[in-house]
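[step 3/7] inverse_fold.run input=structure_tokens len=356
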């Protein structure tokens, strides 16, 4: 864990010269979900077999948590590429393929100079090696960084939700619960912990005893073996509140007070930065809202207050804040608690154990 923490600190320090670079935000699904890469045809997009060479039409899980690259074929031999770099959401990058190598460039403003970041990738089958460099006026500004990537397999066919077989429900929050430690673990024991559980209501309060707002800790389940499942819960958002439910610790369904906001992939019920709900269904802050999520075969469905807002849509990759870049391993459920106050209750996870 110490080594992992050092790697994360290095990546955070070297990947962005300003907070706005690391957490670049866009409300355009086409950045994370290029039309050619989200087509549901068996011969195009994420459902198609991966090309055996080159980078066009591929997606990569990087060797650090929260790292992802997606490359779609563009016009005139150009590429439509986007990246996820630890936090935030996928953002567009300039990319070309030359001599069998992927070359990604990003421009940063650092004090009075412009720094060009270049990521060069070389593919070897299902793996790739990447070298990251920074230069200004032809001079290196920091030492190169190296990391690797693993090719993400094409998506399986869209599942038939009517054929799912469910196992025994697992109660994570229920009326009468008062022991937070029974099912939940704070993820950062050094951070302020505002989570409490009383009579089945899980509250996160980021206002400390000194009445100052704190940067709180996220909370995860003790169980880390969840795969595909149906999750039902209720959430109560504070005014301007922001939280999230991370499925298997890698896919965030956004929980937010966005009642007065337009539709977007950063608002209530969205797969954060990737999938925009089809309609608005959230209630004002201070009201309990019902949330139902189905995760199966890298497809997600979200029903909010009885209205289906994401219908069995393909997931092209992890979201910012993911605990791992590996989409093929079990993981915990985790709740975002480092932003604002939020409350959850009546949370049940029902494993999907097969199909009829």
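[step 3/7] decode complete -> sequence:
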């Amino acid at each position: 864990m110490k080594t992992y923490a050092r790697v994360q600190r290095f990546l955070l320090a070297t990947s962005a010269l300003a907070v706005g670079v690391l957490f670049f935000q866009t409300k355009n699904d086409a950045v994370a979900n290029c039309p050619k890469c989200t087509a549901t045809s068996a011969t195009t997009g994420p459902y198609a077999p991966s090309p055996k060479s080159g980078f066009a039409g591929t997606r990569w899980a990087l060797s650090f948590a929260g790292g992802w690259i997606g490359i779609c074929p563009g016009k005139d031999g150009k590429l439509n590429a986007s990246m996820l770099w630890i936090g935030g959401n996928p953002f567009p990058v300039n990319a070309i393929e030359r001599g069998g190598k992927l070359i990604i460039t990003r421009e940063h403003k650092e004090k009075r100079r412009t720094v060009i970041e270049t990521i060069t990738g070389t593919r070897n089958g299902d793996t790739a090696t990447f070298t990251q460099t920074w230069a200004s006026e032809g001079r290196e500004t920091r030492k190169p960084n190296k990391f690797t990537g693993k090719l993400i397999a094409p998506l399986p066919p869209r599942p038939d939700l009517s054929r799912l077989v469910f196992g025994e429900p697992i109660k994570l929050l229920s009326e009468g619960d008062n022991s937070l430690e029974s099912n939940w673990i704070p993820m950062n024991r050094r951070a302020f912990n505002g989570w409490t559980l009383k009579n089945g209501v899980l509250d996160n309060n980021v206002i400390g005893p000194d009445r100052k707002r704190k940067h709180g800790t996220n909370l995860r389940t003790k169980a880390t073996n969840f795969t595909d499942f149906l999750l039902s819960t209720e959430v109560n958002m504070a005014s301007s509140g922001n939280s999230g439910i991370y499925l298997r610790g890698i896919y965030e369904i956004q929980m937010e007070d966005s009642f007065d906001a337009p539709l977007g992939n950063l608002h209530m019920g969205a797969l954060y930065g990737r999938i925009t709900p089809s309609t608005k269904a959230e209630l004002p802050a201070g009201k309990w809202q019902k949330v139902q999520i189905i995760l199966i075969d890298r497809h997600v469905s979200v029903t909010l207050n009885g209205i289906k807002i994401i219908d069995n849509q393909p997931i092209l990759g992890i979201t910012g804040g993911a605990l791992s870049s590996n989409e093929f391993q079990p993981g915990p459920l985790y709740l975002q608690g480092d932003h604002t106050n939020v409350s959850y209750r009546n949370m049940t996870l029902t494993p999907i154990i097969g199909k009829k």
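[step 4/7] annotate
The radius of gyration is 21 Å.
The chain has a mean pLDDT of 88.
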